[in-house]
Design brief:
Radius of gyration of chain A: 31 Å
Order of helices and strands of chain B: HHHHHHHHH
Structural class of chain B: mainly alpha
Low-confidence stretches of chain A: none
Mean pLDDT of chain B: 86
CATH architecture of the largest domain in chain A: 2-Layer Sandwich
Number of strands of chain B: 0
Oligomer: heterodimer
Strand content of chain B: under 5%
Structural class of chain A: alpha/beta
Low-confidence stretches of chain B: none
CATH superfamily of the largest domain in chain A: Glutamyl-tRNA reductase, N-terminal domain
Radius of gyration of chain B: 19 Å
Helix content of chain A: 40-55%
Largest interface: A-B, 21 and 21 residues
Number of helices of chain B: 9
Distance between the termini of chain A: 18 Å
């Protein structure tokens, strides 16, 4: 009984390939069913996100199952099998598979190290498989453990603590200038993609209003309507600067658009209310000298990148700690798995019963004085109680049914055999 | 018993300051809590000492250099505890406890010899005038501490050094607002201290102002904080300028106070 992971991620396959192989939306349920029905596959779960597609299975013969799964993927998505050759599809089995699942859930295998979405996606994948009754004792335990490992990594390391994208870094910085972003106004100069992304982050952090000043008013209006904000003609940005608290600049102009005297004048009229300027345009659109004004804070794209880089390296350091946690947990899981399969449950059940019998009989004999005949009779009685009690579970274990693993797990749990193996 | 409880208070303030000091360099959950608890224990002993002296003297215990400085420190710690309780600002202790500890330490080496009060000083104005003076000074002390925190944080944001203390200090806006709020408490109290002092001086000596050093320095302090107060309302002076002025304002109070303790002449004699 082994865990087998088949998958592809952002490192092994391009987005075009990942798109084709995704089990998204309507494809997930039939995909899971198809996977579960493959010969040699006892349990199955599928995780499909924009960065990875992974098939988790419980199999008894990994080599045979690999071939089956490969065939299944190419036929399910109707793509030539050749596409899956080479590095595109990776397989992990045994301890490596367990480690892989733990690393994925803990976001150690993510494109952005420590990003928080993956845990939710793993949970959803698990719940879906559970609901479709595709999982059993092994995958249930594995997925639950993966979630708890991820939580342990989150609490014991600082892997998810600092912002690692430019727009997130901008929001984090804004929170160190203004206490609370609620009630703040963001002015977008230019309506590019970067501006939109950053605006989205600010919106999610609860800013009051977003104002867009764009050279093409129509495009500005389009963007503004997405945030229920307002659009103004570009030339009015200096007036808008009087009301804004955060200015996001990405106009694509070849030269400085926001000059020091403009900001200086604005600050007087604003009664020195702090102004946070973010210049994500290259070449820069805001004169760097602006940063020397009181209560004005200017960050350009390089400044933000520096913040992001230092946060990233901080995360990499934390990732080492996280890998250690994962290793530790893989070992624990392996031990449980060994216990589940390698020690014949029957032997250990009988051993436990014998131990109890000997101990209890001895205890009683020490307490009361019996002659030889009486002693024999008591021992016989104990033997017979034990035998009668363990006969049905033993018989059930000997019977070769499909859910033997589950039965073993149950007996180990019911008789508390964990400690004895 | 009064002296002993003062020594114990000093000891706990020292522990608090050490905890707060190490907290600057190594962020843990324990250190700020420890510092806060040490201040509370120290403050209880300090309060015992103040109450004891109050009963022993029969009036507010500020009539010798030791008592006056000690009472000043007591006011600072009182406001610190209130501020920490209501705002729970990161690293506040690291900036305020040293001020309070320094005052307590200075107080411990100053003379506690009391001369009997002259008839002019034996007045209910003593309590009113000094209460306003000390509470307002303590508010300014805390405002200066917050202003210093502001300047440190502003330095981080402007220079784009975003590690270490940056993470743990509150936002600029918050620091600025609380510092300003302390000034809006301190400034009216300080004004009342000056007014009550003048009335008292007129009653006792027949003139509102006799150009003693502490009176002159107090007027300078008052002017500085008046600038902070009003330029914010009128021209929106805030942030760095307000912070620097608050620190200068507090420095003039310390100068005035030190002159008072060292010179020992005039109406403000101990």
């Amino acid at each position: 009984m082994r865990v087998l992971v088949a998958g592809l991620n952002h490192k092994s396959a391009d987005v075009e390939v990942r798109e084709k192989l995704a089990f998204s939306g309507d494809k997930l349920a039939p995909g899971l069913q198809g996977l579960k029905d493959l010969p040699g596959v006892k349990e199955a779960a599928i995780l499909s996100t924009c960065n990875r597609v992974e098939l988790y299975t419980h199999v008894s013969d990994p080599e045979g199952a690999k071939r089956e799964i490969k065939r299944f993927i190419s036929s399910f998505h109707s793509i030539p099998a050749g596409l899956l050759e080479g590095k595109t599809l990776y397989f992990h089995s045994g301890p490596e598979a367990i480690r892989h699942v733990f690393r994925v859930a803990s976001s150690l295998d993510s494109m952005v190290l420590g990003e928080p979405q993956i845990l939710g996606q793993v949970k959803a994948a698990f719940e879906f498989a559970l609901e479709k009754k595709a999982t059993g004792v092994l995958l249930n335990r594995l997925m639950k453990k993966a979630i708890s490992v991820a939580k342990r990594v989150r609490t014991e390391t600082r892997i998810a603590e600092n912002a690692v994208s430019i727009s997130f870094a901008a929001v984090e910085l804004a929170k160190k200038i203004f206490t609370d972003l609620a009630g703040k106004t963001v002015l977008l100069l230019g309506a590019g993609e970067m501006a939109e992304l950053a605006a989205r982050h600010f919106m999610a952090s609860g800013v009051k209003e977003i104002v867009v000043a764009n050279r093409t008013l129509a495009r500005g209006q389009e963007l503004a309507s997405e945030f229920e904000g307002k659009a103004v003609p570009f030339d009015e940005f200096k007036d808008e600067m009087l009301h804004a608290d955060i200015v996001l600049c990405s106009t694509g102009a070849p030269d400085y658009v926001v000059l020091k005297p403009d900001v200086h004048a604005a600050m007087g009229k604003r009664k020195q209310r702090p102004l946070f300027l973010i210049d994500i345009s290259v070449p820069r659109n805001i004169d760097p000298q602006v940063n020397s004004l009181d209560n004005v804070y200017l960050y350009d794209v390089d400044d933000l990148q520096t913040v992001v880089d230092s946060n990233r390296s901080e995360r990499r350091k934390e990732a080492d700690k996280a890998e250690m946690i994962v290793s530790e947990e893989v070992e624990t899981f392996e031990r449980w798995l060994d216990c589940l399969q390698s020690v014949p449950a029957i032997v250990s059940l009988r051993q436990r019963a014998e131990e109890i019998r000997k101990y209890e009989v001895q205890k009683m004999l020490n307490r009361i004085d019996l002659d030889e005949k009486e002693r024999k009779a008591v021992e016989l009685m104990a033997c017979s109680i034990v035998n009668k009690l363990i006969h049905p579970p033993t018989a059930a274990l000997k019977e070769d049914t499909g859910d033997r693993d589950q039965l073993i797990a149950m007996i180990i749990k019911l008789y508390g055999l964990n400690g004895s193996c | 018993m009064g002296a002993l409880s003062f020594q114990i208070a000093l000891f706990f303030y020292l522990l608090a300051m050490l905890a707060a000091f190490f907290d600057l360099f190594k962020s843990t959950k324990v250190l700020p809590k420890a510092a806060y608890m040490f201040v509370i224990v120290g403050f209880l002993f300090h309060t015992t000492n103040v109450v004891y002296s109050w009963f022993a003297d029969g009036h507010i215990p500020i009539v010798n250099a030791h008592e006056a400085t000690s009472f000043f420190a007591w006011c600072v710690f009182l406001l610190f505890l209130l501020l920490e309780y209501s705002y729970k600002l990161g690293l506040l202790g690291s900036f305020i406890i040293p001020i309070g500890f320094a005052l307590t330490l200075v107080s411990s080496v100053l003379s506690s010899a009391s001369k009997p009060l002259t008839p002019q000083l034996r007045s209910y104005w003593l309590g009113i005038h000094t209460f306003f003076a000390f509470m307002s000074s303590a508010a300014f002390a805390l405002a200066a501490g917050m202003a210093l925190m502001y300047l440190v944080q502003e330095h981080h944001v402007k220079r784009k050094r975003l590690g270490g203390l940056f993470e743990r200090l509150p936002s600029l806006q918050r620091l600025d607002e609380i510092s300003y709020r302390l000034i809006t408490i301190g400034f009216p109290l300080f004004t009342l201290a000056i007014i009550s002092g003048s009335i008292w001086a007129d009653n006792a000596w027949g003139s509102y102002l006799s150009w003693e050093p502490i009176q002159v320095w107090s007027i300078i302090t008052w002017l500085i904080f008046a600038v902070v107060f009003h330029s914010r309302l009128l021209a929106g002076w805030r942030g760095r300028r307000a912070a620097v002025l608050s620190i200068i304002g507090f420095a003039t109070i310390i100068i005035a106070f030190a002159g008072l303790a060292l010179l020992q002449k005039g109406q403000h004699i101990f």
